[in-house]
Request: fold
Amino acid sequence: MEWQLVIDCRDPARLVAFWAEALRYRPQPPPEGHPTWRDWYLAVGVPADELGEGDSLDRLEDPTGAGPRIWFQPVPELKSVKNRLHIDLKVGGGRAVPLAERRTRVDAEVDRLTALGARVLGAMDDPENDYYSVQLADPEGNEFCVG
Reply:
């Protein structure tokens, strides 16, 4: 089975730029025979007034082919409640890595992501249970964790 993650958003191009860097993904090229995604959408019958301006860059793919594709689906409404699904970025190395080293790795990734436009929401620092992670929000407020 093939699957993709779909994230509703107001500004797909903004989230494509953020998540491409965050996940080390790349924008997915449009289907063969179409110079842009906008051309493809128009060819399959999506009305132009639903596409906005630009080339409708709204999809990411894992350059290694291992991870799922991600489609940032434009919707008119703003995000208003906590996500029911979120992405966890596992950068610490797991419990085989000492907690101090995991914390250093997580904090370095959090610094990189905040420089890209993420916002820190809080940390779960629980040394008694050998656990550390940081919760962030992407540029549109979608929560995700780095651990």
